[in-house]
Design goal:
The protein is mainly alpha-helical. It has 3 helices and no strands. It starts with 5 loop residues before the first helix and ends with a helix.
Length: 64
């Protein structure tokens, strides 16, 4: 999985962190949670605020 796999990352975060309100999670924490996902192989330093926001919004949609 890479940073561009937004929907897969969001699905995995929703499954791994049920009950979490994604819109309350800080971007740095999102980065760390994504980097800790099984199957994530991208460089953790290659993300940017736009990618993290996209992940956060997709995760929020799945958490409803």
């Amino acid at each position: 999985m890479r940073w561009t796999d937004i929907e897969q990352i969001a699905a995995d975060l929703a499954a791994r962190h049920p009950g979490t309100k994604p819109l309350t999670v800080k971007p740095t924490e999102i980065r760390d949670r994504v980097a800790a996902l099984s199957g994530f192989t991208d460089d953790p330093t290659l993300c940017n605020p736009r990618i993290l926001e996209s992940i956060q919004l997709a995760w929020s949609d799945r958490a409803r």
